[in-house]
């Protein structure tokens, strides 16, 4: 297992200090915002920043204390992911997929799997990635063709997973694969024989999220690779994991809108047109008003989803679909408006609003595209009426 | 198991949950809800999240068999079995739900 390098000089945070919105905000303002443009250009989140995330205890603070986490609730986790998303959607994406893997091991793992993986996932010495999408299959996840079969006592996986966030860097892949009994989840260490990782660079958005294609050629994942139940209930692993990923992306999208509000308020105060500051123009103020209103609405939807999760309420799944549907579109709409408000300055290579614009588009595609949310949310409406 | 509810209360809550999801359907306690034809993976997950909240415990992987969730009767039996300690032991502690 590749260790996270020794904590860099900047990584002074104490991982046992409470993780909450305020601590995440401080971390982002100090460690992320000053350098995000530089590493986005380089196309990867630097190792010392990954180490800083470890030092700040941000990888999986929702894990129980005995597993190395802080046992924070999911409402707070959403706030943390929002703050990280405000600073950098690529880093938030790494947190999202890592969260999905860590949660899955905690929720579905047996004692052996939890003992083997949770402490590393909590500290960040093991980074997780989530492998569902394939070259021929995206939205319709039931159609995946990657297969898993027993060979002796080992699970052996064959197939190709594409567009895998943090695939370039992750140590542990949570792979959805087909068994004789349906689709199930498997833990595949990066260093398992038969695993090949091919970097994907130059994406439109989340440019430093280190995407990769993960090729599994009779990859030997070991006897304890199957995570959770097989058969009927295996689909729940995927449903539960995607739900949490969607929640994180929704929160990250709120962060993008917040960043747009902040950038526009600042820019329109300093930029002058026609003898006065841009902010005095009614059309500009109207745009900012819409932005702020959607910001609060999106955050309220995320908070509702988080509270329902913390209460163990079944409605939390649908609440999360709705939050992600609204927040990701709000991010795309307002990032576009933010570039417009900045004019040419918003189109420059390192302009933060240009990055928000690129990243926001991705939010409408990942963790269930906008169209898939529409299908699911409408289905729920019809489920409740006579057929 | 931390649930203090009686079997009757469990039965009532399960019934209400199913009825709330399919308000236009008459569903008897022995009816196979999967045979109704519109149970999807989202509903299955919601059902498990709901049952774990009502039961006050994580349902062990080995009990996550479709037959245990087919009807109100079967779900109440699952609860009884879990409460009496008759379920396989490997239950993950739930620190988070979702
Ligand atoms: C930056 C980035 C990071 C990603 N990270 C990961 C990752 O870590 N792990 C992973 O497994 N995947 C990852 N993905 C893949 C992502 O999950 C998929 O792109 C997404 O599920 C959509 O699948 P697709 O791209 O194959 O589109 P398709 O499924 O081919 O869909 C194409 C278009 O058709 C629409 N469409 C599809 N079905 C319907 C329908 N029934 N009705 C109407 N419209 C429909 C879609 O909404 C979309 O607009 C990532 C993608 C990106 C861009």
UniProtKB/TrEMBL annotation, chain A:
Domain Acyl-CoA dehydrogenase/oxidase C-terminal stretches: 237-381
Cofactor dependence: FAD
Keyword Flavoprotein in annotation: yes
Residue stretches making up the Acyl-CoA dehydrogenase/oxidase N-terminal domain: 21-124
Alphabetic keyword roster: FAD, Flavoprotein, Oxidoreductase
Keyword Flavoprotein: yes
Taxonomy, superkingdom: Bacteria
Entry-linked PANTHER family: ACYL-COA DEHYDROGENASE, ISOVALERYL-COA DEHYDROGENASE, MITOCHONDRIAL-RELATED
Family: Belongs to the acyl-CoA dehydrogenase family.
Protein name: Acyl-CoA dehydrogenase family protein
Lineage: Bacteria, Bacillati, Actinomycetota, Actinomycetes, Micromonosporales
TrEMBL record, chain B:
Gene3D superfamilies associated with the record: ACP-like
Residues that span the membrane, as ranges: none
Pfam families listed in its UniProt record: PP-binding
Domain Carrier, chain residue ranges per copy: 1-83
Listed name of the protein: Acyl carrier protein
């Amino acid at each position: 297992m590749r260790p996270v390098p020794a904590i860099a000089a900047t990584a002074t945070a104490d991982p046992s200090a409470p993780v909450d919105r305020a601590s995440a905000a401080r971390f982002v303002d100090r460690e992320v915002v000053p350098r995000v443009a530089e590493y986005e250009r380089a196309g990867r989140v630097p190792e010392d920043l990954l180490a800083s995330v470890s030092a700040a205890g941000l990888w999986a603070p929702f894990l129980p204390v005995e597993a190395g986490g802080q046992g924070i609730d999911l409402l707070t986790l959403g706030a943390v992911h929002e703050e990280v998303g405000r600073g950098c959607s690529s880093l938030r994406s790494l947190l999202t997929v890592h969260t999905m893997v860590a949660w899955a091991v905690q929720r579905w793992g047996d004692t052996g799997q939890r003992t083997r993986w949770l402490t590393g996932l909590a500290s960040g010495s093991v980074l997780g990635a989530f492998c569902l999408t394939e070259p021929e299959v995206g939205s319709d996840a039931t159609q995946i063709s990657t297969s898993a079969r027993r060979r002796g006592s080992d699970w052996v996986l064959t197939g190709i997973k594409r567009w895998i966030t943090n695939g370039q860097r992750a140590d542990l892949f949570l792979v959805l694969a087909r068994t004789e009994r349906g689709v199930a989840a498997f833990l595949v260490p990066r260093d398992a024989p038969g695993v090949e990782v091919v970097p994907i660079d130059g994406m439109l958005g989340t440019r430093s999220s280190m995407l990769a294609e993960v090729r599994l050629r009779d990859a030997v994942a070991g006897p304890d690779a199957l995570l959770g139940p097989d058969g009927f209930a295996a689909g729940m692993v995927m449903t539960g994991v995607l739900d949490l990923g969607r929640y994180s992306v929704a929160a990250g999208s709120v962060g993008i809108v917040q960043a747009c509000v902040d950038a526009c308020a600042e820019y329109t105060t300093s930029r002058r047109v026609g003898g006065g500051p841009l902010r005095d123009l009614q059309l500009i103020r109207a745009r900012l008003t819409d932005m702020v209103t959607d910001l609060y609405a999106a955050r309220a939807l995320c908070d509702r989803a988080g509270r329902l999760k913390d209460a163990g309420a079944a409605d939390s799944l649908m609440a999360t679909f709705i939050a992600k549907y609204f927040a990701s579109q709000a991010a795309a709409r307002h990032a576009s408006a933010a570039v417009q408000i900045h004019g040419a300055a918003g189109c420059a290579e390192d302009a933060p609003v240009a990055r928000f614009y690129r990243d926001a588009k991705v939010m409408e595609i990942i963790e269930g595209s906008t169209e898939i949310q529409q299908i699911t949310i409408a289905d729920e409406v019809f489920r409740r009426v006579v057929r | 198991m931390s649930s203090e509810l009686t079997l009757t209360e469990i039965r009532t809550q399960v019934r209400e949950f199913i009825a709330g999801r399919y308000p236009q359907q008459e569903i008897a306690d022995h009816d196979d809800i999967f045979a109704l034809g519109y149970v999807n993976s989202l509903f299955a997950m919601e059902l498990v999240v709901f049952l774990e909240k009502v039961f006050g415990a994580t349902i062990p992987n080995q009990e996550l068999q479709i037959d245990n969730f087919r009807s109100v009767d079967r779900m109440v039996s699952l609860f009884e079995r879990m409460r009496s300690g008759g379920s396989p032991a490997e239950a993950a502690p739930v620190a988070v739900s979702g």
